[in-house]
Amino acid sequence: LVVGGSYIALECAGFLQQLGYEATVAVRSVVLRGFDRQCAAKVQQNLEEIGVEFLEGFVVEKIQKEESGALWEAREAAGAAETPAAAKSAKNDPKKLLVFLKNSQNGSSLALRFDTVLYATGRDADTKLLNLEALGIETGEKGKIICDKFAATKVPSIFAVGDCVKDFPELTPVAIKAGEILARRLFGGSSEVMDFSNIPTTVFTPVEYGCVGLTEEEAIAKYGADRVEIYLSEFMPLETAAVHRQQKRRKQLQQQQQQQQQQQEEEEFLDLSPICLSKLVCVREDPSSSSSSSSSSSSSSSSSSSSSKKEIVKGVHFVGPNAGEVLQGMALAVRLGATKEDFDNTVGIHPTNAESFMLLQITKRSGKDWVAAGGCGGGKCG
User: Fold this and answer.
1) CA of 117: how far to CAs of 24, 105, 175, in Å?
2) Which residue, 122, 119, 125, 121, is CA-closest to 137?
3) What residues are annotated to the active site?
4) What's the DSSP call for residue 98?
5) HSE (side-chain half, CA atoms, 13 Å) at 286
6) Helices (H), 83-162
7) Taking a C-beta distance cutoff of 8 angstroms, is the pair 232, 56 a contact?
8) Predicted confidence (pLDDT) per residue in 42-88, tens digit
9) Domain spans in the chain, listed from the N-terminal domain onward
10) What is the tens place of the pLDDT at every residue in 101-153?
11) Is the domain covering 204-252+271-286+308-381 a CATH 3.20.20.70 domain?
């Protein structure tokens, strides 16, 4: 059982399932909070299709360690007296954990047995033993150090970067980059300050999810639905589509027999659904910022009207194989202010999944089906 809906929780569930263990994820609310909701749902769907079970809305109330089955059998055979054979058997048969869960939404309860329970519900900064208060350094919630934009604490000679800092993205490359920038500023005469906008990241589930910039929800909240355009496509990568594989999916069914709920598992053979999702979050330029004055010429007005239709790419999201590799270059494009027209005018490398971003034409607003029926992965053929 993996407890939590964070990227670490889903990554652990994914690799455990692929190592041959049966992984179940207990999620209190939603998976991948703070990420694009459509992409998060796609990640969950892909995990479910390789056999990961999700208990949505459930929180752990209690964990109880049980005697192993082998130990109980040996005790019964020996008249409930523990024998050396029973003790030896118990060592080879790991104890089960009885986990009591409660649904935070409807109040229903479950009691399930697992070999292991892994918690991935967040982290605290281990700063207590540093006695920072004695130095005058302020800390906030979860022991995190309070710094300004220059990574400086209230003590002029003490700086901090990384996960121990309040409101700092908990990502290793961000800490490394912030440390490099701080070192250049302290010892190299630089005036550069870390820019925390448009940081790319990837969730390393079996089918990865990489993103940079705004989510669909963030873009709508910031710019309004009328200015936001979502371009997207779902498709099967070429290496998967070529062999027409079918994937086993484990599905947990609950049945009520003799007024007691029993659980059983069955295997279904399902066609593997398209595992890739390419998505551009675009924002139209604010017409008021590019409108011409009343004294402008007609040609100038025409130019202004044309430029007001430009769509700036504010977010790139990709669920699919090697998403981290795909998104590294996309992050540069977003930082440089690329437009949808720039993407459209760029020649794609065929046949690749990244090529899909140069070919996106269907918008969510249009109501058209964005799921590709065939083709060479992210390409247009087929």
Assistant:
1) 10, 22, 30
2) 125
3) 350
4) E
5) 5
6) 84-92
7) no
8) 999 999 999 999 999 999 999 998 865 443 443 344 444 443 443 44
9) 2-119, 132-188, 204-252+271-286+308-381
10) 999 989 999 999 999 999 999 889 999 999 999 999 999 999 999 999 999 99
11) no
